[in-house]
Amino acid sequence: MEKEKKKCRFGLIGKNISYSFSRGYFTKKFAGLSLDNYSYENFDLQHIAELETILSENNDIKGLNVTIPYKQDVIPFMTELDIEAEKIGAVNTIKFTKTGLKGYNTDAYGFQQSIAHFLQKHHTKALILGTGGASKAVAYVFETLGIAHKLVSRSPDKNQLSYKNIDNEVLSEYLILVNCTPLGTYPNIEQKPAIPYQHITEKHLLFDLIYNPEKTAFLQEGETQGAAICNGHRMLELQAEKAWSIWNI
């Protein structure tokens, strides 16, 4: 009798994540590769402290992804951080190793690869809307590319902008706008960051990390004004593939 293959479990840590891209993506990937003993599931945590129980009660998990709002909160659980994840200050991929958990960030790779096609010579300054874990990866990419950037927050620090600061003058200078907030995610598709969209022009590029809906209210406003737009779907595919390669090193 053939020995039963050892189960290999993967999953996503987040909060209110029934909508998650990752579970569908990896379930389809495993089926395509005939990996019948591989599974991917959501671990919906109301508080990051619940992760300790998940880790202690599930010894067959081989890798995890991390999404809102825990990309920074998981760091204390890591035994080691990849150099890039340490520089960014956020983790979205966890590898289970013999010596403990190692944290990686594949958001930066996904974002850089997916925005590259849209960047033009006049795209030299960017506004990053939101200050969570994903915004840190976006900021890291802009630093790498030599694109000046400002974070925009409802409660800004001294080096950040408030949404109230964004006017025609600011938007004429910052021609890349990246939405790193959850505003506009299904089912709340009418929501969008509070900026003066009437000042957006055909020179602007609007990038939304949200992928559902395909065209958020934020992107619709940009498109109406003639701006280039891109959603987060390709970024998610790229970061997922990067995570898969990390788990299989």
What would you note in describing this structure?
- There is one protein chain.
- The chain has 249 residues and is α/β, with parallel strands linked by helices.
- It contains eight helices and twelve strands.
- The chain has helices at 21-32, 51-57, 83-88, 107-115, 133-145, 168-173, 217-224, 233-247; strands spanning 8-14, 38-44, 61-66, 80-81, 93-97, 100-104, 125-129, 148-153, 161-162, 176-179, 205-208, 228-230.
- Helix 4 (107-115) crosses helix 5.
- The mean pLDDT is 94.
Overall radius of gyration:
19 Å
Secondary structure: number of strands: 12
Strand order, sheet with most strands? 2-1-3-5-6-4
Work out the helix count. Answer: 8
Beta content comes to 15-25%
Order of helices and strands: EHEHEEHEEHEHEEHEEHEH
Weakly predicted, low-confidence segments: none
Query: What average pLDDT do the residues reach?
Result: 94
Proportion of helical residues: 25-40%
Class inferred from helices and paired strands: alpha/beta
What is the terminal-to-terminal distance? Answer: 31 Å
Instruction: Let me know the largest β-sheet.
Output: 6 strands, mixed
Main attributes?
single chain; 249 residues; alpha/beta; 6-stranded mixed sheet; 6-stranded parallel sheet; elongated
Quick description:
This protein has helices at residues 21-32, 51-57, 83-88, 107-115, 133-145, 168-173, 217-224, 233-247, and strands spanning 8-14, 38-44, 61-66, 80-81, 93-97, 100-104, 125-129, 148-153, 161-162, 176-179, 205-208, 228-230.
